[in-house]
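Quick one:
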Amino acid sequence: ILITALSSFFAMTDMGLNRASNNEFVIKYNQKDYDTCLKLQTNAFLFVLSVFGVFLLVSVLIFILWGFKGMLGVEHFTEKETSVAFVLLLCEVFAMMYGRVYHGIFRATSRTHIVIVADNLIRMAELIVLFCGIFFKMDIILMLTIYLIPSIAGILFKHFASRKTFASGLYLRNFDGPV
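Output:
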């Protein structure tokens, strides 16, 4: 329950950022304003990474100062397991958010179905990891580390699949504050 509750809570942190960025990307792509598209992608990537950095920093501070075990009311895990599990779940949520930055490219090129299937396969793989981890009584840290693999693989898939139609990525030379 802890695993799914925390990841669901952090999944709400997107607050529509990727959707807004992807909508703007589709508009600019259809206007053939590819320079702005590159800037939008870079800004979205940097924003997700920046927010992740802030959340990670706050999580580390909470771990050092107070710990998560008492704060979350966890009884069956040690302080280390609870804190590491929290950070790993945080990484998973932001990996998912980072991967969704690519969705605008697929929408703009009428290939949205590809990322929908990819996201569903990622979620199914995550659920299989959770089920197997619980069934085989796997260590929580190991299970959550393996739980990250589908999201990371999804990012790689979306990156390389999107490059077939639009070469984007995290390029600092494309950063533009006002976009």
